[in-house]
Specification:
Radius of gyration: 21 Å
Number of strands: 11
Order of helices and strands: HEEEEEEEEEEE
Shape: elongated
Distance between the termini: 77 Å
Strand content: 35-45%
Bound molecules: dinuclear copper ion
Number of helices: 1
Length: about 160
């Protein structure tokens, strides 16, 4: 087969497209935190997700364990209102969250988005060094009441 300029250009274009694809995948992968563990979404009652909400683990250190579900963040409160968590300023919270149905996500204020997939535990530690109300939302479209998936962390003096 004769190598014509057309073939050379086509090969070059293929190379460029493949490199760009690989590079964008690498960037996405690097931005997505690795899951902190796995959990059976059908058996959350037999897992650490039996106990939800704020759990003190030390001096101003907490775990905030949540289950994302259609369509709210379950922090162990009664369903009906958005999740509300209160902590004193200077606290450090490790959010531990999974989904019991579809893919959701969690973004606290302007912190990086956590992808929440059934079967996986997502985790993120945030220090709250200023007082105020820090909203959190699901940023991943998960169904008709996706917009209802919200809550707030209230940091008190
Ligand atoms: Cu859950 Cu969007």
């Amino acid at each position: 087969m004769r190598i014509t300029p057309h073939i050379v250009i086509a090969l070059l274009l293929c190379g460029i497209i493949m490199s760009a694809t690989i590079a964008s995948l690498a960037v996405q992968y690097a931005r997505t935190p690795l899951p902190a563990g796995r959990v059976d979404p059908m058996r959350l009652n037999n897992s650490e997700f039996r106990q939800l909400g704020l759990i003190a683990t030390g001096n101003q250190q907490y775990i905030l364990r949540m289950i994302a579900k259609e369509w709210f963040f379950d922090v162990g409160q009664r369903r009906g209102g958005p999740a509300t968590i209160s902590i004193p300023v200077g606290s450090r919270i490790t959010i531990v969250v999974t989904s019991m149905d579809v893919i959701h996500s969690l973004q606290v204020a302007t912190h990086p988005v956590l992808l929440i997939r059934p079967g996986f535990i997502a985790q993120q530690t945030i220090a709250f060094d200023t007082t105020g109300t820090f909203p959190f939302i699901c940023t991943y479209y998960c169904g008709p009441q996706h917009d209802a998936m919200r809550g707030s962390i209230i940091v008190t003096p």
